[in-house]
Amino acid sequence: MKITDIFKKQDRTFSFEFFPPKTYLGAVKFGINAGQLIKLDPSFVTVTYGAGGNTRDNTFDLVKLFHEDLGFVCMAHYTCINATEEKVANDMRTLGDMGIDNVMLIRGDPPKGDHSKAFPNSDGFNYGSDLVKFVKNYEKHDFCIGAGAYPETHIEASSMEEDLENLKRKVDNGADFLVTQMYFHNRYYWEFLNQTEKKGIDVRIIPGIIPITNFKQIKKFADMTGANIPDFIRKRMEPHQDNPDAIYQIGLELAIEQSYDLLDNGAPGIHFYTLNKSRAAIDLYEALADEFKIVKNKYKKSFRPHLPVK
Ligand code: FAD
């Protein structure tokens, strides 16, 4: 099922992002955490591609497991650094043959930021919009296409205006909806929605939320992505940064406040960056479920064609 078909029935979606585990122990932990998260019956799940050195096969195996064995609507992330047309076409055929209808098409980042080896790409895959265009025109399978959006401006862009032009191109080339990079102040999201609207970008833009459970780790992510950690968060967290329990509690409270504000003001759902951990996402989801009337089993009945493993 395409995620855009879920949009037709649901004003708000709740989705979880996972990454393929790299080690045996990582896989065991993944099973435990994902097992708990999928009991919440998210609208859809997504699996990242290539990030942190993961391989294509790991992503595709996990996508297959979620889709085929567990019956979830699943979205495979896919990136195009150093890709060829032949490779992308083969990989899209593999996903299409698996019955996957949804792909999150992202440029990716070159290893260790070495742009000179990755760009220009020999087959023209220099930006997310190039990949979107190719997959949209891929004749053997009609995918629902998601793509990335950057409320605080992508770290390489020289201005928001330029970034918005590029985002518009991505949507014009065929992106059906957008998911934002993590950010910590909703002001960025609301301002971004205003600007995208002015640009004529009229697809759903789902906010990507990450509960801060490890302040030091989040500071590293924020440096990598250019996300700003606002002063009100630093002031609450910094005095406790060596106390994991206190950081967890504050991080959860902040994520609840942020998500509550988003949903209360009409955001079209939440995409949870779970980092393959379940506790914070479950606590957050449960804090929102009653207030925002998230009906857990609804998707199972109406959208999931086969039963999950018992
Ligand atoms: P693009 O749209 O390609 O933009 C990148 C930069 O190029 C921007 O500054 C943009 O303004 C500029 N640009 C775009 N088009 C043009 C043009 N035609 N001419 C000039 N400049 C242009 N990474 C992974 O490795 N694996 C994943 O699974 C993954 N999933 C992600 C999911 C989401 C929702 C998001 C938001 C990010 C994800 N990332 C992932 C990170 C992503 O790879 C990086 O953020 C990457 O730097 C940008 O990819 P993009 O396709 O979003 O950007």
Helix content, binned percent: 40-55%
Stretches where pLDDT is under 50 for at least 5 consecutive residues are: 297-310
> Termini separation (Å)?
22 Å
Q: Measured on Cα atoms, how large is the radius of gyration?
A: 19 Å
CATH topology: TIM Barrel
Return the average pLDDT rounded to an integer.
Answer: 92
Q: Label the CATH architecture.
A: Alpha-Beta Barrel
Largest sheet: 9 strands, parallel
How many helices? The count is: 13
Instruction: Sum up the overall morphology in one term.
Output: globular
Element-level helix/strand string? HEHEHEHEHHEHEHEEHHHEHH
Structure notes:
The longest helix has 21 residues, at 244-264. α11 (244-264) packs parallel to α12. Helices cover 47% and strands 13% of the residues. β2, α3 and β3 form a beta-alpha-beta unit. 39% of the residues are buried. The protein has a nine-stranded parallel beta sheet with strand order 7-6-5-4-3-2-1-9-8. The chain is built from 13 helices and nine strands. It has helices at residues 3-9, 24-38, 56-69, 85-98, 115-118, 128-136, 160-172, 186-199, 215-225, 231-237, 244-264, 279-289, 298-303; strands spanning 13-18, 44-47, 74-79, 102-106, 144-149, 177-180, 204-206, 208-209, 269-273. The protein is of the alpha/beta class and 310 residues long. The two termini are 22 Å apart. The protein has one domain (3-292): Alpha-Beta Barrel (TIM Barrel), CATH 3.20.20. Flavin-adenine dinucleotide is lined by residues 48-51, 77, 79, 104, 106-109, 127-129, 148, 154, 156-157, 162-163, 166, 170, 179, 181, 208.
